[in-house]
Amino acid sequence: MHTPFHPDRLVTLDLHGIAQRALITEMIPLTTAIDSDQIERNTPVLMTKQGFAVVAFPTRGFSLYNVMQGTLDDAPWMGSFCAVCNAGMAFSPVVDGQTLDFYGAGYHDGMTVLRDIQTGSYWNHLTGDCMYGDMLGKTLVRVGSLIHSQAGTVARTYPKARFVPVPIDAVRAPLDNFAEAQRVAAEPVWLPPIVATITQADVRLPRFEMGLGVWSDAGARFYPVTSLHARDNLVFDTFDGARVLVYIDSDTATPSALFTEATAGAWRGDTLTLNDGLTIKDGILLRGAEVQQPRRPLQLVQRWYGFSTTFAGCAIYSGT
After folding, report:
1. Which of 24, 102, 173, 281 is positioned for an S-S bond with 70, CB 3.0–4.6 A?
2. Distance CA 110, CA 118 (A)
3. Closest by alpha carbon to 5, among 89, 117, 125?
4. pLDDT the model gives residue 14
5. Distance (Å, rounded) from C-alpha 105 to C-alpha 87?
6. pLDDT band at 1 (very low <50, low <70, confident <90, very high)
7. What 3 state SS string does the chain have?
């Protein structure tokens, strides 16, 4: 589905000796992290479900390291996030019974590329497909999407969520600031070597157009943020045989999607009221005062070039 991998287009960057992976040996309750001021409630996090557990990663730390890896409840896990394309996923690093160790090897098609230490193979950081090397043809087991949220929102929705502390020291701080600036910029100023890795472009939308991409084995669809803005920041659609709500989260100002039984909704201030009796306020799905845990399709908050490269020929939501 994605464009072919060409080793001669892989670009590595000198990050002054900072490895593009973080080995995670500690997780703490997210509520504890908030109560002890290790993280503020409005701090951006990337949340994912891993089995029955929910884990929140600080977005800025993830942007710097590209790869985080560890063990949760005796199960190995690995997550990847690319500050350039603004998207990531969580996987199991176990392939054929062997736990592989991953790191960010550089950039290809303007996105982070993963490499495992054991075999030197290269992997797509969003689909988990091995693209080159001894593991060609293998695919990592997907754990889940990395959902953009805030620490307080995750803690209220998932009271037992865990938090991954990622301290940024004085040496890493300038690079962390640079990565965050690139991630949030409407028109990022890319380093020329990264631009050179892109040889194909889907010109149906501007390269840096931000949006939400959803996908399944049946296909993929991209919802541009501009299209959501034009529709009062909410869209009801059918994807892969199920109804989805795609909206701009008022808490994070990022697009998000969930499965729904509702067919209509309206904003009342910063609260989205749905006609199935549910509301979304401060990023939290509610039935009355009771917090609900949403079901979500696989999704990526991502720039257009990254989603269209990964899912070539994907559909674009048009509102018709």
Report:
1. 24
2. 25
3. 125
4. 57
5. 16
6. low
7. CCCCCCHHHCECCCCCCCCCCEEECCCEEHHHHHHCCCCCCCCEEEEEEECCEEEEEEHHHHHHHCEEEEEECCEEEEEEEECCCCEEEEEECEECCEECCEEEEEEECCEEEEEECCCCCEEECCCCEEEECCCCCCECEEEEECEEEEHHHHHHHCCCCEECCCCCCCCCHHHHHHHHHHHHCCCCCCCHHHHCCCCCCCCCCCCCCEEEEEEECCEEEEEEHHHHHHCCCEEEEEECCEEEEEEECCCCCCEEEEECCCCCEEEECCEEEECCCCEEECCEEEECCEEECCCCCEEEEEEHHHHHHHCCCCEECCCC
For 64-109, write each residue's pLDDT tens digit: 788 999 998 889 999 999 888 889 999 999 999 999 999 988 888 8
Q: Which residues of 5-40 are buried (b: 16+ CB within 10 A; e: fewer)?
A: beeebbbeeeeeeeebbbebeebeebbebbeeebbe
Contacts of 52 (CB under 8 A, 6+ apart): none
Poorest-pLDDT segment among 47-56, 114-123, 139-148 = 47-56
Amino acid at 34: I
Tokens of 83: 């500050």
pLDDT at position 2 is 59
pLDDT at 19: 58
Tokens for 246, please give them. Answer: 């795609």
